[in-house]
C-alpha cells in the first residue's frame, strides 16, 4: 500500500478548476466535485433514447416487419435456390454415377463417408444394427440398384428412422456412398442382422444366402 | 480525526467504534470461495475441450458442475466480496457501527451455509434448472431469510446513522438490497413435490420472461450496482481525489436503476417471446449504454491527475482496469442486444466470453483492488509483497485476454458456420452440427489455458494476502471515533436531490418504484393474460414417463448445452425443423430454452432417430456422432426410475396449470410402466437386456422422442416430391 492515503484532499492534486467546483460534501474524507456532464456522454445518453422511441413505435405500433415477415422473405429466396438444386438433384445421372463408381479414389471416399454417416445405424460392416443389413441383397425401400437407392437416400424414410441425406451430402457424395455400398454386396458377415424386405438379385449376389426368419 | 461540523456541536459528541471483525470474516470467505469458483471454472473449461475429464463420475459432469461454478462465482465469491466492502464502507460513510453485530454474524454464517448446501446439492443434480437460480426451494427460502437479516441490519444502520446525507455508494447499496429481494422472490416461486424437487409456477414463455428478467438483473443488481457503490468508496480513497462529478452520480444512478430492469428480454431475442417485449428489451439495452458508462467515467476521471500512481498502487491499478473492463462489457452488452448482432452471437461462445469479461474483468478485479486496500487497513499492516502484486495483476490480465479473445473467435466462427448457406444450391454448408463443434475445440483449449492463468493469479493473490495477515500484529485495539448524534446536528435546509439524500426511507421507496415500473410493464401482461400466446390444441401435456424423463433432463443440466428454441432463421429451420412457437411450451415447468448451443438444438429431436440410437448415444456419444464432445451418461442405464413419486409430480404440475385428469394421476405409475415397456421393447428386440425397462434411460428416451412431436412435422425445406412439384 502507499502511505499517502490520508483523508486530506486539499493538497496540490486539485487544479484551480477543481477547487472552484469542489462541493462541501465530505463522507469519511471523500469529497465531491461537480463537473458538468461531458457533452459526448449527454449526446450518447439522449441519442440512444431518441433513437429508441421511433424504433419502438415503428416495429410495435406501425406494423414494421416482424421476425416472421423477414423470415418468410429469406425463406422465399432460399427456396428458389433449393428448388433449382433439388430439380437437378432429383434426376439420377447414370453417366455421372458410372464415372464415380469407376474411380477407385471416389469409391474410397464413399467408404469414408459411409463410416462417418451410415455405420452408426447400419453397423461397422454394414451388417445391420439399428437399420437393416445392406449387404444381404434384401431391400425394404428400393430394388438395390443405384438408380432406385439414389432417391431413397436423398429423401429418407423418417418413419423408419432413415434420415433424408439431401441436405447433408452433396450429389457427388451420394453417388460415392452408393458406389461403395454396391461394392460390398454379398460381403461375408460374422453376425448379420436378420434380413428385412424383399430379395433383389444383383451381379455380385444372384441368390439369397440367408432367408428371412419368418 | 472526524470532520467536525461546528464548535457548538462538540459537546454532543458520541464515541463509537466499527465492527471490522464481520468485514474480516467476509474477506476470508471471499478468498476461499473465489479459489473454489475459479477452480471449478477451469475444470469445466477443460471438460469442454476433452469430454473425458468428468472421469466417468456423474457428480463431476459438466451439466452438474456448471451451475456450481456460476453460483460459486456469483454468490459465493462476488457476494462475499461485496458484503465485505459494504460492511466496511457503510459504517464509515454513515459514521455509525452496524445496527447489530449478531445480525452481521447470522448474515455471514447463514450465507456460508447456503453456499455449502449449494456445493452439496448441485453436483447431486438437485436443480431448478433456471440459470443462476438453480438452488432448490428450501435453500431458496434460506437465501430469503439471510437476505432479510442483511436488509434489517443495513436499514437499521441507516436509521441510526450520524451522517445526515447518504453518499452515492449507499444509494447503490440500497438499490442492490431491495431489488435482489424482489428478483429472488418472484423468480423462485414454485410448487414443491418433495424436499428436493419443485416445479416453477410459471410455464414456457412466462417462465422464460421471468427467468431472464431475474437473470439479467442478477447481473445488474448483484454484480453491478453493489460494485459501483464500492467503486464510489474505494476509488476516491485509493486515488486520494474527490469524485469527479456529483451530478453525473445522480443522473447515472437513477437512469441505470430505472433502465436496467427492462433489458432482460435481450436474452430472448428471436425466441417465441412476444415481439413487443423483445423490442422493448432491445431499446432499453441500447439506452443502458450511456448510464453504464456514466459510472465508468466518473470513476476513471476521479483518478485523473494521479495516473502515475497506477504503476505502484495495486488498488488503483486493479480498480482502473476493472472500470475499463466494465466499460468494455457494458458496450459489448448493448451491441449484442442489437437484433442482427444477436442473431449471430446468441447461443455461441461469444456470450460466454462477454459474461467472463464482466465477472473476471469487473468483479474479480474490483474485489482484488478493494482487498489490496482493505486487508492491510483492517489488519493494520503492510502488504507482504509488492512484486507478487504485480505478478498477480499481469497473470490475471493476460489470462483474461486469452479467455475473451478465444471465446470471441470461437463464437463468431461457430455462428458463421451455423448460418452459412451455399449461394448456388441454397443448402447448408455445414449440415452436420458436429463439424462446427470440432472446429472450435482448439479455442476451448486456449480458453482453458486462459482460465488456468486466472486461477493462478488468484492463488498468487491469496498467498500474498495470507502472508500479509500472518505478519500482522496479533492484537490491535479497535480505533474509536467521535461524532455528534444525528438529532444533535444542525443542517441548513437543502433542495432537490440533496434533500432526498437526507431522507433514506423515501429514497428507498423511490428506488423500489423505479425498478417496479419496468418489471410490471414487461412481465404482468404476459402473466395475467394468455393473449400473447397463440393457442395450439395439438399440444398435450407429457405422459407420466415422459415427465420422469424431463426431470432427468433437468437434473443432468442438459439445457446448459442444448437449446430447445428454433429461431425464425432459414438456417435454423433447415437444420432443426420449423420455428418454435409460444404455444408449444405452455406445459413446460420450467422452460428449457437454454442459452448456449454447445450441442445441437433438441426442440424437434423427437422421432428423428430410433430409440436404439439414443440408447447407444448415451453410452457412447462418439459411436453415433464421431467427434462429439458430449460426456458419457452410462449411469442412466443403471439408475432406476422413481415410478412411485409420479402421481405426486403430476399433482404438483396440475397445481401450476398442467391439465392432468384425476385418472391420469391415479394411473400414473401403471401408465408409465406400460410406456416404459413399449419403449424398451424396441431396445430389447435389438439385444439389450430386458431389465432396461425400469431404468432412467428409458424415461429419458421417452421424453426426447416426444420433443416437438405435437407441433407436427415441417416439410418446408425437405427434399420431397411435393416440394419438387410445387412452386413455379
Evaluate the radius of gyration of chain A.
36 Å
Number of helices of chain B: 27
Helical fraction of chain B: 55-70%
Mean pLDDT across the residues of chain A is: 87
CATH topology of the largest domain in chain A: Cytochrome Bc1 Complex, Chain D, domain 2
**CATH third-level topology of the largest domain in chain B:** Cytochrome C Oxidase, Chain A
Structural summary, described in words:
Chain A is mainly α. Chain A has two domains: 16-64; 90-199, Cytochrome c-like domain (Cytochrome Bc1 Complex, Chain D, domain 2). Chain A is built from eight helices and two strands; from the N terminus they run ααααααβααβ. Chain A has helices at residues 16-21, 39-61, 67-90, 94-101, 104-117, 119-122, 146-155, 171-183, and strands at 138-139, 198-199. In chain A, strands 1-2 form a two-stranded antiparallel sheet. In chain A, α4 crosses α8, α5 (104-117) crosses α8 (171-183) and α7 (146-155) packs across α8 (171-183). Chain A is elongated and about 105 Å long. The model of chain A is unreliable at 1-10 (pLDDT under 50). With 728 residues, chain B is an all-alpha fold. Chain B folds into two domains: 17-475 and 504-521, Cytochrome C Oxidase, Chain A; 544-719, Cytochrome c-like domain (Cytochrome Bc1 Complex, Chain D, domain 2, Orthogonal Bundle). Chain B has 27 helices and four strands. Chain B has a two-stranded antiparallel sheet. In chain B, α7 (225-239) packs parallel to α10 and α13 packs parallel to α15 (433-470). The longest helix of chain B has 38 residues, at 433-470. The radius of gyration of chain B is 27 Å and the shape is globular. The chains are: A mainly alpha (214), B mainly alpha (728). At the A-B interface, α2 and α3 of A face α2, α7, α8, α9 and α10 of B.
Amino acid at each position: 500500500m502507499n502511505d499517502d492515503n490520508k483523508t486530506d484532499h486539499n493538497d496540490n492534486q486539485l487544479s484551480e478548476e477543481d477547487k472552484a467546483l469542489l462541493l462541501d460534501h465530505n463522507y469519511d474524507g471523500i469529497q465531491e466535485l461537480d463537473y458538468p456532464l461531458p457533452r459526448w456522454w449527454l449526446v450518447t445518453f439522449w441519442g440512444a433514447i431518441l433513437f429508441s422511441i421511433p424504433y419502438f413505435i415503428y416495429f410495435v405500433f406501425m406494423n414494421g416487419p416482424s421476425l416472421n415477415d423477414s423470415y418468410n422473405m429469406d425463406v422465399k429466396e432460399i427456396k428458389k435456390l433449393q428448388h433449382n438444386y433439388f430439380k437437378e438433384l432429383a434426376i439420377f445421372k447414370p453417366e455421372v454415377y458410372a464415372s464415380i463408381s469407376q474411380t477407385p479414389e471416389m469409391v474410397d471416399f464413399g467408404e469414408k463417408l459411409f463410416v462417418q454417416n451410415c455405420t452408426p445405424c447400419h453397423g461397422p460392416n454394414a451388417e445391420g444394427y439399428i437399420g437393416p443389413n445392406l449387404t444381404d441383397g434384401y431391400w425394404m425401400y428400393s430394388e438395390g440398384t443405384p438408380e432406385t437407392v439414389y432417391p431413397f437416400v436423398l429423401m429418407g424414410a423418417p418413419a423408419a428412422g432413415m434420415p433424408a441425406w439431401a441436405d447433408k451430402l452433396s450429389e457427388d457424395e451420394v453417388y460415392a456412398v452408393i458406389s461403395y455400398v454396391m461394392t460390398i454386396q454379398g460381403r461375408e458377415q460374422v453376425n448379420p442382422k436378420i434380413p428385412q424386405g424383399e430379395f433383389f438379385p444383383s451381379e455380385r449376389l444372384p441368390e439369397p444366402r440367408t432367408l428371412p426368419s419368418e | 480525526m472526524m470532520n467536525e461540523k461546528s464548535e457548538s456541536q462538540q459537546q454532543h459528541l458520541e464515541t463509537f467504534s466499527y465492527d471490522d471483525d464481520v468485514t474480516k470474516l467476509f474477506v476470508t470467505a471471499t478468498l476461499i470461495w473465489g479459489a473454489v469458483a475459479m477452480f471449478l471454472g477451469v475444470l469445466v473449461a477443460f471438460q469442454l475441450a476433452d469430454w473425458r475429464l468428468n472421469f466417468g463420475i456423474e457428480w463431476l459432469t459438466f451439466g452438474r458442475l456448471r451451475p456450481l461454478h456460476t453460483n460459486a462465482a456469483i454468490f459465493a465469491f462476488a457476494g462475499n466480496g461485496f458484503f465485505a466492502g459494504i460492511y466496511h464502507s457503510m459504517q464509515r460513510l454513515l459514521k455509525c457501527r452496524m445496527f447489530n453485530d449478531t445480525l452481521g454474524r447470522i448474515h455471514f454464517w447463514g450465507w456460508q451455509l447456503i453456499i455449502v448446501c449449494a456445493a452439496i446439492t448441485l453436483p447431486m443434480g438437485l436443480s431448478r434448472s433456471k440459470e443462476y437460480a438453480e438452488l432448490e426451494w428450501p435453500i431458496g427460502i434460506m437465501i430469503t431469510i439471510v437476505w432479510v437479516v442483511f436488509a434489517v441490519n443495513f436499514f437499521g444502520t441507516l436509521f441510526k446513522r450520524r451522517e445526515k446525507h447518504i453518499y452515492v455508494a449507499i444509494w447503490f447499496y440500497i438499490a442492490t438490497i431491495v431489488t435482489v429481494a424482489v428478483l429472488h422472490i418472484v423468480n423462485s416461486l414454485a410448487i414443491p413435490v418433495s424436499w428436493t424437487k419443485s416445479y416453477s409456477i410459471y410455464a414456457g414463455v412466462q417462465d422464460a420472461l421471468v427467468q431472464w428478467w431475474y437473470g439479467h438483473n442478477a447481473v445488474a443488481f448483484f454484480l453491478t450496482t453493489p460494485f459501483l457503490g464500492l467503486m464510489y468508496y474505494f476509488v476516491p480513497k485509493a486515488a486520494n481525489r474527490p469524485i469527479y462529478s456529483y451530478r453525473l452520480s445522480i443522473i447515472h444512478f437513477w437512469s441505470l436503476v430505472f433502465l436496467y430492469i427492462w433489458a432482460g428480454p435481450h436474452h430472448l431475442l428471436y425466441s417465441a417471446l412476444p415481439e413487443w417485449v423483445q423490442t422493448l428489451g432491445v431499446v432499453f439495452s441500447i439506452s443502458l449504454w450511456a448510464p453504464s458508462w456514466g459510472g465508468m467515467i466518473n470513476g476513471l476521471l476521479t483518478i485523473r491527475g494521479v495516473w502515475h500512481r497506477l504503476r505502484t498502487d495495486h488498488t488503483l491499478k486493479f480498480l482502473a482496469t476493472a472500470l475499463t473492463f466494465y466499460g468494455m462489457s457494458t458496450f459489448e452488452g448493448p451491441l449484442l442486444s442489437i437484433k442482427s448482432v444477436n442473431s449471430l452471437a446468441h447461443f455461441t461462445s461469444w456470450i460466454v466470453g462477454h459474461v467472463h469479461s464482466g465477472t473476471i474483468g469487473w468483479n474479480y478485479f474490483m474485489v482484488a483492488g478493494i482487498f489490496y486496500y482493505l486487508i492491510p487497513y483492517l489488519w493494520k499492516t503492510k502488504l507482504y509483497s509488492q512484486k507478487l502484486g504485480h505478478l498477480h495483476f499481469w497473470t490475471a490480465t493476460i489470462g483474461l485476454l486469452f479467455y475473451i479473445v478465444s471465446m470471441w473467435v470461437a463464437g463468431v466462427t461457430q455462428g458463421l458456420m451455423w448460418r452459412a448457406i451455399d449461394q448456388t444450391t441454397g443448402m447448408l454448408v455445414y449440415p452436420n452440427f458436429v463439424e462446427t463443434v470440432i472446429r472450435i475445440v482448439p479455442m476451448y483449449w486456449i480458453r482453458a489455458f486462459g482460465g488456468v492463468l486466472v486461477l493462478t493469479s488468484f492463488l498468487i493473490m491469496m498467498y500474498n494476502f495470507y502472508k500479509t495477515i500472518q505478519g500482522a500484529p496479533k492484537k490491535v485495539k479497535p480505533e474509536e471515533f467521535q461524532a455528534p448524534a444525528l438529532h444533535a446536528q444542525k443542517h441548513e435546509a437543502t433542495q432537490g436531490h440533496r434533500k432526498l439524500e437526507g431522507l433514506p426511507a423515501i429514497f428507498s421507496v423511490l428506488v423500489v418504484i423505479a425498478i417496479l415500473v419496468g418489471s410490471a410493464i414487461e412481465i404482468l401482461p404476459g402473466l395475467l393474460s394468455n393473449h400473447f400466446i397463440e393457442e395450439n390444441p395439438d399440444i398435450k401435456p407429457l405422459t407420466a414417463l415422459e415427465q420422469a424423463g424431463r426431470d432427468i433432463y433437468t437434473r443432468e443440466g442438459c439445457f446448459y448445452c442444448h437449446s430447445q428454441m428454433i429461431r425464425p432463421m432459414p438456417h435454423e429451420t433447415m437444420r432443426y425443423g420449423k420455428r418454435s412457437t409460444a404455444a408449444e411450451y405452455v406445459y413446460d415447468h420450467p422452460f428449457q430454452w437454454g442459452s448456449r448451443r454447445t450441442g445441437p438444438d433438441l426442440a424437434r429431436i423427437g422421432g428423428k432417430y430410433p430409440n436404439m440410437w439414443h440408447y447407444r448415444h448415451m453410452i457412447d456419444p462418439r459411436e453415433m456422432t464421431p467427434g462429439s464432445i458430449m460426456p458419457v451418461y452410462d449411469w442412466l442405464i443403471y439408475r432406476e426410475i422413481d415410478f412411485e413419486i409420479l402421481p405426486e409430480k403430476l399433482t404438483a404440475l396440475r397445481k401450476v396449470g398442467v391439465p392432468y385428469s384425476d385418472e391420469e394421476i391415479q394411473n400414473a405409475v401403471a401408465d408409465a410402466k406400460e410406456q416404459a415397456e413399449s419403449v424398451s421393447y424396441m431396445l430389447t428386440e435389438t439385444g439389450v437386456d430386458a431389465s432396461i425397462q425400469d431404468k432412467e434411460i428409458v424415461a429419458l428416451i421417452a421424453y426426447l422422442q416426444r420433443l416437438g412431436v405435437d407441433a407436427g412435422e415441417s416439410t418446408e425445406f425437405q427434399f420431397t416430391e411435393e416440394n419438387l412439384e410445387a412452386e413455379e
